[in-house]
Prior knowledge:
Blueprint: H1 2-135, H2 139-187, E1 198-202, H3 207-213, H4 218-227, E2 230-232, E3 239-243, H5 247-263, H6 268-296, H7 306-314, E4 319-320, E5 323-324, H8 325-343, H9 347-355, H10 371-381, H11 386-389, H12 391-394, H13 403-417, H14 424-441, E6 446-452, E7 457-462, H15 469-486, E8 494-499
Parallel strand pairs: 7-8
Antiparallel strand pairs: 1-3, 2-3, 4-5, 6-7
Amino acid sequence: MELTIVIAIVAAAAGVGAGFVVRAQTAKRREGNAEAQAEKILAEAKQKQQDLLLEAKEKSLKMIEEAKAEEKQRHEETKRAQERVEQRESTFDKKLLDLEEKHEKLETEKERLRGIKTRLEELTAESVKKLEEVAGLSKEDALNRLLAQIEQDEAEALETRVRKLQQSVDEDLDRKAKKMLSLVIERYASSHAVETTTSTVQLPSDEMKGRIIGKEGRNIRTLEHITGTEIIVDDTPEAVTVSSFSPIRRQVARRAIEMLMKDGRIQPARIEEAVQTAKKELAIEMKKAGEEALTELGIPVSSIDPKLVQILGRLKFRTSYGQNQLQHAMEVATIARMLAEELGADVHVCTKGGLFHDIGKAVDHDMQGSHPEIGYNILKKFGFPEEIAYQSIGHHVDRPKTLESIIVKAADAISGARPGARKNTFEQYIQRLEELEKTAAAFPEVEKAYAIQAGREIRVFVNPTQIDDLGAYQLAKNIAKKIESELQYPGEVKVTLIRETRIIEYAR
Length: 508
């Protein structure tokens, strides 16, 4: 048993030793293989390094050769350019020498001509002197005697001739002027219509009249209050009449009534909304009218400030002696342009100056001063040059300072003097109504004032916070006294003063 154990131990020891030997040999063999592989990789790396160095060297040599070739080419081009410059300098020097030579020849010829001229003058002086010695008179004396003798012998004939020439020139100029004006007027034979002070609004039925009047007349009072017009509801079938001397007020009232009829709701709140909408639509129409006027005259709309276009469009609803001012302005511009073409004046200045010559009338109700001064200031404010802005003043002075101003003034007279174009009594009537409104509005408590009933009544709206009922009675008397003392009018003027307190609150 013990022997068996010993043998087993010896065998185990021998196995362990053999295993160590085998493992050591295997490790040694692997180590040898790794060294061989490392040497192989190192050798391959060295070979690649040599190949890369050779390749880089070849590329460097190639780039050097290309750079040398390019440098050689640039050198040759520079040399050729230098040769061309030297050749041009040589040609220039040659031409310069030729010019200097020609200049010297010209100077020589000039000196020779001066000598000839001096000799001619000397010979002429000698000839005149000899003639004076022979005649016994100097040159001036002989000329004066000749002229005096001619004047004495032919004085009457000369005077008659001058008169005939002057008369002929005057007749010729008058004939040409009449012909030119007649041709211009014939070329621009536009229609005209006298503006009225009323507008008629057609109704779908007579039942609508009662709705416009409203309960106890509140609708019609509100409409008249807001628009400053008089709404006349009479026996005319299916129609009401809007009366006011201001075309803009009439347009606002007419449009508001038409909106209310389409909507069907007629009450004070809705009337206020309709009037505001009508005012906005009218502002758009004014701008459109101004743009159409510019387009028709060939003036680019983009060259005029939009605010000035809006002011120009206001002339569509402004009259002067019954003549529509926008139509009048377009007539003046067209006639002035035609006259400028005939006379050789500045067509651009005459066209623009003619169109804007009465621009002050578009805002003269809202600003102080005469419309020529207002128009001049407006045009200068919007950057117009002096020669165009002056047309606003020039067409109202006796002696305009430029030809274009004379042309615009003549065109203005032609447009206004056409038969049926203007109506003096209408303008006087409008002026009387405006003066009536201004007289009432001069009191600080007055908020608005509207002349109605052809100037037989003035409706005054006061601020309820600035005056009480007792003060309202006194104010009405004061307005009546001021109208009596300052204005002239036929019959009597009724002063209706309205003090209204409106309180609005919302339930939420």
